Amino acid sequence: MAKADIGLTPKQTEILAEMLEPLLADEFLLYLKTRNAHWNVEGPDFHTVHVYFEQLYTELENVVDEVAERLRKLGHYAPATMKQYLSLTHLSEQGDGKNDSLSYMKNLLADHDAIIVYLRECIVKIGNEVEFAYGTSDYLTTLMEQHETTAWMLRSHLK
């Protein structure tokens, strides 16, 4: 594949790709876990939470696509297998095995929080190591804010 000539050196795009690949894995695993919650939640609040989880996984489906496309914009291929995702992710595939809404929400909240922390680390690293990577930095900041909103909603429900 021809490398993108976008004002960043190959080393800079490599640093960005090394940050985005685990992020893509995290987002995909969170998407899958949210789908699982949507499919398997049980309890007196089933309908409301089932609909809410659908909203969340729909948002995450778009995020997964955007992160993969950001990699492609930088001239890199996106990892796209479960084996790759499981080797790259910061998240745990396992939940606590309960199918109630509060258990799912606690688990999903922990994952959103972990992604927020990782995004902050990436934004700082870009500022320190990848001069002129404004597009990726802006994208990650916006994505972090999106995860912060979802985390706030989940945290508020759990109070």
Describe the structure.
About 75% of the residues lie in helices and about 0% in strands. Helix 1 packs across helix 3 and helix 4 runs antiparallel to helix 5. It is elongated and about 55 Å long. The model has no long low-confidence stretch (mean pLDDT about 95).
How many strands? 0
The N- and C-terminal alpha carbons lie at a distance of 50 Å
Task: Please compute the radius of gyration using only Cα atoms.
Answer: 17 Å
What's the helical proportion of residues?
Answer: over 70%
Low-confidence stretches: none
SS class: mainly alpha
Strand content: under 5%
Q: Based on Cα principal axes, name the global outline.
A: elongated
The largest sheet, given as strand count, sense and whether it forms a barrel, is: none
Mean pLDDT: 95
Give the topology string: H per helix, E per strand.
Answer: HHHHH
Please supply descriptive tags for the structure shown above.
159 residues; 5 helices
What order do the helices and strands come in, and which of them pair?
Layout: H1 10-40, H2 46-73, H3 82-88, H4 101-129, H5 134-158
Helix pairs in contact: 1-2, 1-3, 1-4, 4-5
